[in-house]
Write a structure and sequence with these properties.
Number of domains: 2
Order of helices and strands: HHHHHHHHHHHH
Number of helices: 12
Oligomer: single chain
Distance between the termini: 37 Å
Length: about 210
């Protein structure tokens, strides 16, 4: 599990470097291309295209990535796996609610990409996989993958869209329901949380 976590961390570092390269190009007023963003950190074109297939998606995500709090900030104060995953999920739900228009724009672009590829969700999944690699648990590899997949469905704009656009709930209700769904998923896989940990992990409603 540690080796897998290190591979995940390395992929995240590469992805972050490409995104940083895109932001550097933006700050200089230069066109954002996948190859140019990668070149800012000496990453090959071939490697870069495994992460981003087109510059529009890269530019959109580069802007959104600046809003994501660092992993260490998100998990601060958590000492067990359930609390850590709850904190990650709650942080991603808050981020989505606070920047809903931008995330909707990114989602719309991702689902209509010409090549059908999508790299969305890498941050939330990466954070969750990192937590699983850092703390002890009794889950098999398959169970851990199921847990991450389940949490990923509520820790992003997709879950918000389902609740607001499909189910017709307002944003405040959607925030509450996403938190309750996440709690149910965590309880199913890891058992119930303490009262203090549960209160800490609740997403704030806007």
């Amino acid at each position: 599990m540690r080796d897998k976590a290190e591979r995940t961390n390395q992929k995240q570092r590469t992805r972050d470097a490409i995104l940083d390269g895109a932001r550097r190009l933006m700050s200089r007023g230069e066109p954002v291309t996948v190859a140019a963003a990668a070149a800012e950190h000496g990453i090959s074109r071939a490697t870069a295209y495994r992460y981003f297939s087109e510059p529009q998606a890269l530019a959109l995500e580069a802007g959104l990535a600046t809003l994501v709090p660092p992993y260490e900030q998100v998990i601060a104060g958590t000492t067990d796996l359930r609390a850590r995953l709850a904190a990650i999920t709650a942080a991603m739900i808050r981020l989505t609610l606070e920047n809903e228009p931008a995330f909707r724009q990114y989602l719309a672009h991702a689902v209509t990409a010409a090549d059908g590829s999508s790299s969305r969700g890498a941050r939330r999944v990466g954070y969750m996989q990192r937590a699983l690699g850092e703390l002890p648990h009794d889950l098999s590899a398959a169970q851990a993958a199921d847990l991450v997949a389940s949490l990923a469905t509520v820790a992003g704009v997709e879950g918000l869209v389902a609740l607001t656009d499909v189910a017709g709930r307002d944003s405040a209700t959607a925030a509450r329901l996403l938190g309750e769904i996440a709690d149910a998923i965590l309880t199913r896989h890891l058992g119930p949380a303490s009262v203090a940990a549960a209160d800490q992990a609740k997403p704030r409603q806007r």
